[in-house]
Structures are given as structure tokens and as C-alpha cells.
Design goal:
The complex is a heterodimer of chains A (110) and B (115).
Chain A (H helix, E strand, L loop, with lengths): L2 E5 L2 E4 L5 E8 L6 E6 L5 E9 L2 E4 L5 E7 L2 E6 L8 E9 L2 E4 L3 E5 L1
Parallel strand pairs in A: 2-11
Antiparallel strand pairs in A: 1-3, 3-8, 4-5, 4-9, 5-6, 7-8, 9-10, 9-11
Chain B lengths: L2 E4 L3 E5 L4 E3 L1 E4 L6 E6 L5 E7 L5 E3 L5 E5 L4 E6 L8 E9 L3 E7 L3 E6 L1
Parallel strand pairs in B: 2-12
Antiparallel strand pairs in B: 1-4, 3-9, 5-6, 5-10, 7-8, 8-9, 10-11, 10-12
The chains are: A mainly beta (110), B mainly beta (115).
Chain lengths: 110, 115
Amino acid sequence: SQTIHQWPATLVQPVGSPLSLECTVEGTSNPNLYWYRQAAGRGLQLLFYSVGIGQISSEVPQNLSASRPQDRQFILSSKKLLLSDSGFYLCAWTVGYEQYFGPGTRLTVT
Amino acid sequence: AQSVTQLDSHVSVSEGTPVLLRCNYSSSYSPSLFWYVQHPNKGLQLLLKYTSAATLVKGINGFEAEFKKSETSFHLTKPSAHMSDAAEYFCVVSDPNFGNEKLTFGTGTRLTIIP
């Protein structure tokens, strides 16, 4: 069966520090992959999605970037974090009409 | 562009009573609609989906939703609430130009179950 992993589960970083969040999928090949952010008390905002290795579409201009170095690996990065980057980051992938979500990473920027 | 409006940010019901979480959508095309549930500090889990088949959709954990095109609604219901149903619920619509590539999420409804 397919599973999706995210790490770390929680992260506290100072303003201006770099960021790297990793997402990997098992049990499938060539998945469509997504990064979402969920701010406190708000819905999910799509940040990036990828339909293949090296193919990244950005939905929201900001200081974040994404990369897909391998078929089942999706990385979210930042060179310098802002306070507004705090939130719950979710990775997802699609099967047919459905999106399946990872357990998420809670990022607090101090 | 499509959009989703969840009419209640917070719903409280007593255990054993019915649950109704309301959702209205806006879309220029026939949409695909979903309900997801999120327990605290967890990822989202798909409850059910509508993809232009039967208008009454049954999901997991006893939940169901009815697609009503005339009312542009997709309300989530459950006959009898259980304590484990306490969570955040999201109504979601897919972008018809991108299929399941782009989902638009509502702002969520927090469901509280009163013992």
C-alpha cells in the first residue's frame, strides 16, 4: 500500500534561518505531489505542485521554493524564514480523484 | 474560478445527536467535491467524494453528503455523533481545468461533541 512520510514532525526556527522540509512517498511511481500550508485558524493554501521530476508549479509567490530531485521525493525550502512562514505544512499526493495527505510538519518561526 | 464557503466556523452537538456541517460551492463547471477531516496536529483524511455519479455520497465513519446542484450545496451529515468525531472538517472543490491537480479548500468547520 502507498504511504507518505514527512519530516521533521515539528520544527522551531529563528527568523532569517534556512528551511528544508522533506516528503517522500512509498508504494507508487510518478505521483503528483503537493505542498500546502495551513495557518492557524485558516484553511489550506496550495503552495507548490509537481507532476514529475524537476517539474514544479508555484501557486503563491513568496520566499519559499520547492524541488523534486527524485520521483517520490518532494522538498520545500527557504533561504531565509519570515515570521509569517509559521504554520502547519502538509505534503499530499493524488490517486485518481483523491488527494492523500502526510502527517504534516508544524513550523514555528521565532 | 471555483470557491467554497463553509457556513459555520464552529458547530457543537451532543453525543448521539445528528451532525450537519454546511458547505456551498461556486463553480462554472460540474465540480468534484470532497470532505476531509483533520484531527489535531494530524494530516487530512478523505471522508467522501462526489464526482458526478450518485448525488448522495456515503463515506467513512457513518458520514454522508448530498450534492444539490440547484442549491450549490454539499452538506455533510451524520445521524448520530460520536466523541471521536470531534475534529476540523474541510469542504473542498477541484478545479475543473486541472482535475485533481488543484483543490480549493474551505476555511474549515470545527466540530465539538458534548458528552
